[in-house]
Design goal:
The chain has one domain (about 1-230): Alpha-Beta Barrel (mRNA Triphosphatase Cet1, Chain A). Helix content is about 20%, strand content about 40%. It has helices at about 15-25, 55-60, 120-125, 130-135, 210-215, 225-230; strands at about 1-15, 30, 40-50, 65-75, 85-95, 95-105, 145-155, 165-175, 195-200. β4 (about 65-75) and β5 (about 85-95) form a beta hairpin. The radius of gyration is 17 Å and the shape is globular. The protein starts with a strand and ends with a helix.
């Protein structure tokens, strides 16, 4: 079980044309993350919400506190089976983000896709002692709503402890309730998928020089939620 202290998270939707330029910039500033194969791995997230999509509406309405609940698993070239399942609650409070994660054994992941799925809200309230998260979920029966499957490349920023760069590409939305077995190239890509989502996560404000360089490349910071994007483009 993990509880990550508040951190800054800046998001930059990137076009396909900006992808290569951004890759070259990042490689000069950071080292590949220790996770995955040379910092690259697949991510699967199944999102949970109320029947009336209360958590989704928090995002699109621009509420000060925004909460997301997801089941997350990983896969890479070294480990071709989905592994490291965890139930996560990610909450943005103004400009800062906190995250709670409850880890499971890999054999338990199939329980989340069974006809009678676990009590997600009960698991969170039993294990999470963050009052703000508990209050946000106190009266919300959670059900699986939609899933996302994408490739992530991650780096550790050189010289600034706790600063992490991630780049998510080939973002695909899927119906909730199933774990994809095929690889991403075999999945039908959504025509509305962004070229990629570049994120800077840091316990301190990211270096201004990096932000200025992104602006010079025509890459601007935006509020972006992959969960909200998936629901808005759901077929």
């Amino acid at each position: 079980m993990t509880r990550i202290r508040p951190f800054h998270e800046l998001k930059f939707p990137v076009s396909a044309a900006q992808h290569a330029v951004l890759q070259n910039l990042v490689q000069g500033l950071a080292l590949p993350d220790k996770n995955g194969c040379n910092g690259c791995y697949e991510v699967f997230s199944q999102y949970y919400d109320s029947h009336d999509l209360r958590l989704f509406r928090e995002k699109v309405n621009g509420e000060y506190i925004k909460t997301k609940v997801r089941l997350r698993l990983y896969r890479d070239e070294n480990r071709r089976e989905w592994h490291s399942p965890g139930l996560e609650v990610k909450q943005r409070r103004g400009n800062l983000v906190t995250k709670f994660r409850l880890d499971f054994d890999s054999s338990q992941s199939k329980d989340f896709f069974a006809a009678s799925s676990p009590d997600i809200r009960g698991m969170i309230l039993t294990n999470c002692h963050d009052n703000c998260i508990r209050d946000a979920l106190a009266n919300i029966p959670l059900v699986p709503v939609i899933s996302l499957h994408y490739t992530r490349t991650a780096w550790q920023f050189c010289g600034i402890d706790g600063t992490r760069l991630t780049f998510d590409t080939r973002v695909n939305s899927l119906s909730a309730g199933r774990l994809p077995m095929c690889s991403l190239p075999e999945l039908p890509a959504c025509s509305n998928s962004p070229g990629g989502i570049f994120e800077i996560k840091s316990y301190v404000l990211p270096p201004q020089a990096v932000i200025e360089k992104l602006v010079q490349l025509g890459i601007s910071q935006q509020s972006f939620s992959k969960y909200a994007w998936a629901l808005q483009h759901k077929s």
